[in-house]
Amino acid sequence: MRKILIIVILVIFFVAGCNSVRFSVNADELEDINKKLTELTTFLKSSEQATATNEKQLTTLTAQLESIKAQVVKIEKDIDQKEQDIKAGEEKLIAQKKLLDERVASFYKQKGKTQDAILQILVSDNLTTFLKQFRYQQNLLNNDRRTIVRVVLLVKDIEEKKIKLEDEKVRLIPIKEQIAKQSLFLEGEVLSAKKYEQTLKSEIASLTAQQQAVIAQKQAGLNLPRSAGLSTGGCIDDRNIDPGFSPGYAFYTYGSVHRVGMNQFGAYGRSRAGQNYETILNAYYNNIRLECRNFPNNNIRVQGYGEKPIYEYLKGIGEMPNTWGDSGGYEALKAQVVAAASFAYAYTDGGGGEICTNQNCQVYLGNNKGGKWEETVNEIKNFCGDGVQVMVSNDTGEVVKAWYASTHGGYAWTSGEIWGSNKPWTKHFQDTSTNAGSFSELNERAWDKDSPWFYCDWGSRPQYNKTAWLRPEEVADIINVILLVRKNSSNACYVYQPDKPAPSPDPSKGCSSTDNWSPEKVRQELGSSAFKTINSLSISADFGSGKTTTVSGDGDVGSFSFGGEEFKGWFNLRAPANLQIVGPLFNVERK
């Protein structure tokens, strides 16, 4: 009875406006959480059965679990608030009890007067006065009755809500237990994924220094174009060229070389879309401003040419085609002038050192290039007079070392990701007009899509119409090599490209054997798990970062799946001739 009395007084107090109990959380929200947990459990079971956990999927699952946790925390806070409100109401009990007692006493008092009404009317001297008093007593009685009825209804209502509150608490217990269980599972999966990633890295690292030197030599033979203004190097898109066999597979890389800083063909695409040179520079360099700086005596020391006036030097830069100035790329030329001046200033430490003239620094032709390029240099000169316009980092205050390259393949990367030393003016982003989430969208939206080196299968073989197409059995051999090294890492010393002998052994670089196992020998070592042919290949990629994540497919003995970096490393070592995958994002084409 005392419990009910406390609740009654509490409700009266809350209705009076002194406080308010909130019952905003209901069973629907708990049902929603249970539904989400069921869906999450389904995904987790699928993940648990996978042979290799996808870290991106784990991130998504973790985010879902965190969202569920946040909802549970909100419910717990609402429950806590309800309990705090009830406790506050109980503290008002003493003051409210007196009011309730007066209401109850008044009710019974007025009820007694009503029962005596007939007797009183018989002895009353003034009927009118009596009737007024009677009506007044009836009104008091009705008011007290209404108050008591309202209190009874409120008691019933709050008792029901307290029952629901207790039910919420009970239902939260298994949900929290399930969340804790799934959290532990996810933590284990993340650790497993990291361990798997480290395993892949160690397998890639199992390429000895000798093998890595072979890959570097093969790539050097491709003469990868670093500058958009040079016609040397490059590759031909083989998709419409018949190699003389079918089916065939070719691996296409997006972009070439380092992909740090300005994407020259990307700048050209942006210029043609109407972006000015300042917008272009801010797209490729992070948190920079344009300033005028002077070289010592306005000269720069150029390797093989001595000191030259800075603007004479800039007019001889051969990094972009002159023709771009007449085909919508004039703003790209202006961006290149500023980038070249910035690189020269930073490379020579403000003019104190000497700059080389090839692609290891930036291409200098030794003479005035003329045409639109000279016109562009003169226009930039107008901003600073004898000084030059350069980019300055707002983070460090130094003139930025403005790296750039011909073709990034739809993505720019930070210097830290490429060379291990991060500079604040470099950044990683998708270099597209709008976000791309597939290979086809990237091909349509990348600013540098018109580059001849945007999407290329690097390398060629004369006997196959100078293409980079591979036979299914040649792809099978590369896959067998990966399986062989996974089986026993020491087998790595016996695999090089099958159409050439192994390099001279160098024990200090990891291997002492002169053996180079043929495809037949690799299959023999693998036994029944060796592939003789490939039926299909597919590529998965993280289009947010611009990396191929998985190479998978099936063949005559089943299916396979490898990490993108793992596959690229062994492909570049084992592929015949000079066939290479030259970047982090690559795709496969089938003919």
Query: Spans with pLDDT under 50 lasting ≥5 residues?
Result: 1-27, 200-205
Sheet bearing the most strands, described?
3 strands, antiparallel
In spatial order, strands of the major sheet run: 11-1-15
Provide the structure class. Answer: mainly alpha
Per DSSP, what share of the residues sits in E-state strands of 2 or more residues? 5-15%
Query: What integer is the average pLDDT?
Result: 81
User: Per the principal axes of the C-alpha atoms, what is the gross shape?
Assistant: flat
Task: State the share of residues found in helices, binned by percent.
Answer: 40-55%
Protein architecture, described:
Keywords: Coiled coil. InterPro entries: SpoIID/LytB_N (IPR013693). This is Sporulation stage II protein D amidase enhancer LytB N-terminal domain-containing protein. There is one protein chain. The protein has 591 residues and is mainly α. Helix content is 51%, strand content 11%. The protein is built from 17 helices and 15 strands. It has a 3-stranded antiparallel sheet, with no helix packed on it. A 3-stranded mixed sheet has the order 5-4-6. It has a 3-stranded antiparallel sheet with strand order 12-13-14. Strand 13 and strand 14 form a beta hairpin. The N and C termini lie far apart (86 Å). The N terminus is likely disordered.
